[in-house]
Amino acid sequence: MGNMPTVADIRSHDADDDPLTFLTAYDAPTAAALEAAGIDIILVGDSVGNTMLGYDSTLPVTVEEILSHTGAVTRATDESLVIADMPFMSYGADPDEAIETAGRMIKEAGAQAIKHESGPHTIELTERLVQNGIPVMAHLGLNPQSVNETGDLTRRATDAEEAEEILELAKAHEEAGAFALLLEHIPANVAKHIDEALSIPTIGIGAGPHVSGQGLIITDVLGVGDWVPPFAKQYADVQSEMEKGVEGFREEVQNGEFPANDHYVEEPIDGWD
Ligand SMILES: Nc1nc(=O)c2c([nH]1)NC[C@@H]1CN(c3ccc(C(=O)N[C@@H](CCC(=O)O)C(=O)O)cc3)CN21
Ligand SMILES: CC(C)C(=O)C(=O)O
Ligand SMILES: [Mg+2]
């Protein structure tokens, strides 16, 4: 895809192009690293809840938190496509409030688009958001915000009925104007079928290779934290780098090596020696 795509570039992605790359970021330095590495799409996910804020799910994450983290990401990037994730209970119940909140992600935080966990209740909403100039990524398959309803975070579309439901919802959201679809934790053959049935691109997270692009959570990629989902791959061990750095500091303070001469100054002040 090349660097710095717009929503329009993503929408017109086709099968001959390189697969799209999609990662989350929640803070300025990480976002800068993603942009420098040429990642196509940055999601400020509500996964900030479990990866960064110490919650054990995404449900407690607030609109104000997503606004704050999205602001950090957009201030650190020039032209990356930044998508703000709509948090639990910020868009399902009241469409007017949902549109206003999505608008804040664009106006106050500088996102170019929003994502919502999608279902029958988000089809009309998607249409209204798009009419208002707010690009929408729809999110189907595993919807972690529904964990209390569904009971677990296992793979979705494991039977024909559920696969068909997701396919129909995918088509309905494309029809409603979504510019792309995120497919989470579903069998590769189901994702392939959905990808082929749509003209907008499909990003898979745990959805196999037959989609338009691949996504993961940044902390899973970097090896930060103590848990990863079964579909993730770790490319670095940043947690142990952090521990090494902090240990180095502690050791040198305790053995007197830090601070050394070049970390402080002495001034010849009368009476202060
Ligand atoms: N660090 C992180 N990585 C993610 O991929 C991620 C998050 N956080 N937070 C938001 C959602 C939650 N996701 C998840 C979470 C757990 C499983 C998982 O472990 N699934 C197991 C079954 C777990 C169960 O029984 O509930 C599986 O084998 O499918 C999958 C996706 C994906 N997202
Ligand atoms: C599962 C991912 C893509 C997500 O929605 C998030 O990071 O919050
Ligand atoms: Mg999310």
Automatic annotation (TrEMBL):
The EC number(s) this enzyme carries: 2.1.2.11
SUPFAM superfamilies given in the database record: Phosphoenolpyruvate/pyruvate domain
Residue stretches spanning the membrane: none
Cofactor(s), by name: Mg(2+)
InterPro entries cross-referenced by the UniProt entry: Pantoate_hydroxy_MeTrfase, Pyrv/PenolPyrv_kinase-like_dom, Pyrv_kinase-like_dom_sf
Binding sites annotated in the UniProt record for Mg(2+): D46, D85, E117
Name of the protein: 3-methyl-2-oxobutanoate hydroxymethyltransferase
Origin organism lineage: Archaea, Methanobacteriati, Methanobacteriota, Stenosarchaea group, Halobacteria
